[in-house]
Amino acid sequence: MHSMTSPDVLAPAKLGPLTLRNRVIKAATYEGLSHKARVTQDLIDFHVGYAAGGVGMTTVAYCAVAREGRTDRHQILWTDEAMPGLRRLTEAVHAHGAAVSAQIGHGGPVASPKGNGLPALSPTKHFHATSLSWAREASVADLTGITEAHAEAARRAIDAGFDAVEVHLGHNYPASSFLSPKINHRTDGYGGSPGEPCPLRTRDHARRP
Ligand SMILES: Cc1cc2nc3c(=O)[nH]c(=O)nc-3n(C[C@H](O)[C@H](O)[C@H](O)COP(=O)(O)O)c2cc1C
């Protein structure tokens, strides 16, 4: 018996324009199965396992939107070279009737400067306890670049056959680090409190048609 207030987990469900065969979604868990920023057969087999097991949708974790945003140097990047493997993965999952989502993200201050060979980017200069290194303050140009890189990753996810995109906003990544008064000491439009006027954002909006 199911009441109106308790949906059937195993019945088809709508998620935006998608219809999933059930409400079970495999969460993003970076498994370390990508290699040199590309999909491996092990990663395909891992997701096919969930699809064959009956999930409505599986999520391919850590598809980095930019080289300096990776928390591990083997994480998938949306390069031309990665696309054939990503297409093979989405086709293999679809063959088992499941949908497949790409989790796109940028590690910001949490990224690995040693693995990436590039400094990590933070709202303000910040020493990161996991990587034991400094993340430098992101410029406005860096932040515009990160925003555009998310849009490009989403476009590429569509090209690779993904049904959905999940944006990683947790774990002290850029979105959550900008909300943290401990990491964000900026005085420009990307700093301050939510209630305060945001000159940068107002200017950006004014420029848009
Ligand atoms: C090994 C491992 C890797 C993870 N990698 C990611 C990741 O890449 N992206 C993400 O959003 N969450 C990641 N998580 C968090 C999980 O998606 C999930 O939110 C967490 O395990 C808590 O889920 P639960 O409340 O259902 O136990 C990871 C968790 C584990 C254990």
List keywords for this structure.
alpha/beta, 9 strands, 3-stranded mixed beta sheet, 209 residues, 4-stranded parallel beta sheet, TIM Barrel, 6 helices, single chain, binds flavin mononucleotide, disordered C terminus
The first-to-last residue Cα distance is 52 Å
CATH superfamily annotation: Aldolase class I
Bound small-molecule species = flavin mononucleotide
The CATH class, by name, is Alpha Beta
Assign an overall shape. globular
- What can be said about the biggest beta sheet? 4 strands, parallel
- How many domains would you count in the coordinates? 1
Number of helices: 6
Reading side by side through the largest sheet, how are the strands ordered? 4-3-5-9
Share of β-strand residues: 15-25%
Structural class: alpha/beta
The percentage helix is 25-40%
Structure summary, number of beta strands: 9
Q: Give me the Rg, rounded.
A: 19 Å
Order of helices and strands: EEHEEHEHEEEHEHH
Describe the fold and architecture.
The chain has a four-stranded parallel beta sheet with strand order 4-3-5-9. It has a three-stranded mixed beta sheet with strand order 6-8-7. It is α/β, with parallel strands linked by helices and 209 residues long. Helices cover 30% and strands 18% of the residues. The N and C termini lie far apart (52 Å). Helix 1 runs parallel beside helix 2 (83-94). The radius of gyration is 19 Å and the shape is globular. The chain has one domain: Alpha-Beta Barrel (TIM Barrel). Bound molecules: flavin mononucleotide. Flavin mononucleotide binds at residues 27-30, 61-62, 103, 168, 170. The site of flavin mononucleotide (FMN) has 9 residues, from strand 3.
